[in-house]
Amino acid sequence: MSDEHIPLNDFIEYSQDEMLARAQNNYQQVKRRHSIRKFSDRPVPQAIIEQCILAAGTAPNGANHQPWHFVAIKSPEIKAQIREQAEALEQAFYAGRAGEEWLNALKPLGTNASKPYLEHAPWLIAIFSQKRKEEQGEQKTNYYVHESVGIATGFLIQALHHAGLATLTHTPKPMSFLSKICGRDNDNERPYMLIIAGYPADDATVPLHALDKKPLNEICEFI
């Protein structure tokens, strides 16, 4: 392990006017990112997914241990298995396991136990968190795992949107079936999230409720 440093030589400084313009443009772009539940089955080249996952891998993380693993799934057979397992869990969830308050909170979004997008979308990306890393034959503890993988997941969603794809986050509980289906069934990893990615279907919609975002003065203060 090296404690050497190199000069920061790839930082680009912009004028303040350009910084503001870039920030405004980014906000306008990211406002167009919506979680959708109807996907086209149009194929998306693997090279695009690879670049987005590489972007996710640049996320800041505890001690640079990079405690994540991504499984990009395009196999129709595996996607069918995931849908079958996920819908079985969702049936129980919507039948009452979630509780009345949670189910009432979901009603404006129009969600239910049916998850056809798990088969229709060209790509599912299963994200796994890792408790430990192997370094020179030794097991090392990973730090800030949940936070690190959360940041990387955000990077991935942004990268997919920036590339021109629609996305949806999916977190069936429990998600242990993903470990088995993806061949990651070990005591070091646990499923963190499933990202659905692809083109929106022609009849894709966005719930009005999902467009209701808090204004700046409700999410931030300057002191």
From TrEMBL:
Gene3D superfamilies listed in its UniProt record: NADH Oxidase
InterPro entries (alphabetical): Nitroreductase (IPR029479), Nitroreductase-like (IPR000415), Nitroreductase/BluB (IPR050627)
Domain of life: Bacteria
Boundaries of every Nitroreductase domain copy: 30-199
Pfam families: Nitroreductase
Alphabetical keyword list: Flavoprotein, FMN, Oxidoreductase
Name of this chain's protein: Nitroreductase family protein
